[in-house]
Design brief:
CATH architecture of the largest domain: 3-Layer(bba) Sandwich
Distance between the termini: 60 Å
Number of helices: 17
CATH superfamily of the largest domain: FAD/NAD(P)-binding domain
Largest sheet: 5 strands, parallel
Number of strands: 16
Strand order of the largest sheet: 3-2-1-4-16
Strand content: 15-25%
Shape: globular
Structural class: alpha/beta
Bound molecules: flavin-adenine dinucleotide, iron/sulfur cluster
């Protein structure tokens, strides 16, 4: 008899966890993993595999879990995904692999992400370390998931790789954006160590486009370059009062808290001085900013212009935010920020919104109601309404063709307008997901490897 519901994920108590940064989802026990693995029907046509952006062989790794061959399960996942502990924690599985699981026809899907996390956390890694070919060096710009995945596949194929990172530590958004309570940095370190084992080298505090120009990488002996520079440039609302003291972009706020350890007694990084925080937006970034603010002791409200059904954040994160006593002002849009005489935020004025009937494309528009705007008193506003590609490298590399929103243009092989320069991840798509960035990095690596194999002397 198949169990209809997913094996529940043990979680930390909501009242306790909203005062600390320890991980919220605690991970499956051995028995939980066996129970959940036994729910998989081992479908021959594998619909779940097709809806994973990197096509993890889901039934095969789940079968290995069920048969208690955990190290085999990890080797199966590693064939296409170098970061199972990370992806098992942060992938929006409900719209990816789990969305097409045949179990959803009658019951809940198999908890593929939770099982993948279990394998990544508990299995022993088997690596086949090849001697590296230093005549075919690859430069990777940016150490987010796209850059790391490209570096991993190139090193696995035996090519020497150097990853250049602007910050003083590696991981991109995995390090400075996604908070510890969702993605512990020890987990990020553990999975990145696999790249070090393969011989990948990291050069931090190097801004390509400033410290070194993109074309100079070729003068330094690199034969191919991958650009995985992400989309870290915040978008603002352009409303009155947005320049007031106490208005932050979510990027700045999260970087201060996660990366520069603001709020920890032994660090000097300054933090917000107030007691109340309003976060604008409904994506993962907004949830993360709100949940960080709550943990730092702020009374926290999320303002989002659409309704609960349209919140783009992962379902689990929304549920966790609600359990943690974060208030939601849905169908509300900010129109003005008011400040006191010193220019510090005092309140935010919002307009009630409503959804229209769905149009021909099936989407509802959101329009203002006739209601009077309402005011929320607050001393801090965090804007989390989106980001666009990091511009430094793009501006300094004139031959690099970009699209309307500053995204780097690539062909179907991730090749940019410059020969032997490839790109992928958020820098190409705009803000997306970890696994899509990872998939793009892999695709670029495949193109680089093909170029090297087709030109053995080049
Ligand atoms: P990034 O991760 O942005 O990495 C780019 C790196 O390049 C950075 O380290 C940057 O410093 C470096 N860089 C930039 N310019 C230069 C330069 N000129 N020289 C050298 N280095 C440079 N996705 C999910 O799937 N699930 C989630 O739960 C989720 N939550 C998120 C929460 C937050 C707060 C944020 C901000 C994003 C979240 N995302 C989530 C999205 C996901 O993290 C990104 O889609 C993903 O990290 C993109 O990877 P990337 O490699 O393209 O870029
Ligand atoms: Fe699902 Fe992400 Fe794992 Fe793919 S990588 S199987 S989408 S959890
Ligand atoms: Fe297992 Fe669901 Fe994939 Fe079928 S669709 S193999 S039940 S995870």
């Amino acid at each position: 008899m198949i169990k209809p519901l997913k094996t529940p994920m043990p979680v930390a108590d909501a009242e306790e966890r909203n005062t600390n940064f320890y991980e919220v989802a605690l991970g499956y026990s051995h028995q939980d993993a066996l129970d959940e693995a036994s729910r998989c029907l081992q479908c021959l046509h594998k619909p779940c595999v097709a809806s994973c952006p990197v096509n993890v062989d889901i039934p095969s790794f789940i079968r290995a879990v069920k048969e208690e061959r955990l190290d085999d399960a990890l080797s199966i996942i590693h064939q296409t995904n170098c970061f199972p502990s990370i992806c098992g924690r942060v992938c929006p599985q409900e719209v990816q692999c789990e969305s097409t699981c045949v179990m959803t026809k009658r019951y809940q899907s198999v908890a593929i992400g939770r099982l993948e996390r279990y394998v990544g956390d508990h299995a022993n890694v088997r690596v086949d370390v090849k001697p590296l070919n230093h005549a075919r060096k690859v430069a990777v710009v940016g150490s987010g998931p796209s850059g790391l995945a490209c570096a991993y596949d190139c090193a696995k194929a035996g090519y020497a790789v150097t990853v250049f990172e602007a910050w003083h530590d590696i991981g991109g958004v995995l390090r400075y954006g996604i908070p510890e309570f969702r993605l512990p940095k020890a987990t990020v370190d553990k999975e990145i160590d696999l790249l070090r084992t393969l011989g990948v080298e990291f050069e931090c505090n190097v801004v390509i486009g400033k410290t070194i120009e993109c074309h100079e990488l070729f003068d330094m002996g690199y034969k191919a370059v991958f650009l995985g520079t992400g989309a870290g440039l915040p978008t603002f609302m352009n409303i009155e009062g947005e320049g007031s003291i106490g208005v932050f972009s979510a990027n700045e706020f999260l970087t201060r808290v996660n990366f520069m350890k603001a709020g920890q007694p032994t660090y000097d990084t300054p933090l917000l001085a107030g007691k109340k925080v309003v976060v604008i937006g409904g994506g993962n970034v907004a949830m993360d900013a709100a949940r960080c603010a709550k943990r730092l002791g702020y009374d926290t409200t999320i303002v989002y212009r659409r309704s609960l059904n349209e919140l783009p954040a992962r379902q689990e994160e929304v549920e966790h935010a609600m359990e943690e006593q974060i208030h939601f002002e849905l169908l509300s849009a900010p129109v003005k920020i008011s400040a006191d005489q010193q220019g510090r935020v005092r309140s935010i004025l919002c307009q009630r919104m409503q959804l229209t009937e769905p149009g021909p494309d099936g989407r509802c528009k959101v329009v203002a109601t006739d209601d009077e705007p309402f005011e929320i008193e607050t001393d801090t506003v965090i804007v989390a309404i989106g980001t666009s590609p990091n511009p430094i490298l793009i501006r300094s590399t004139k031959e690099l063709k970009t699209g309307k929103w500053g995204t780097i243009l690539v062909d179907h092989n991730q090749q940019t307008s410059i020969r032997h320069v490839y790109a992928g991840g958020d820098a190409v798509t705009g803000a997306a997901t970890v696994i899509e960035a990872l998939g793009a990095g892999k695709k670029a690596a495949a193109s680089i490897i093909a170029y090297f194999s087709e030109n053995p002397a080049g």
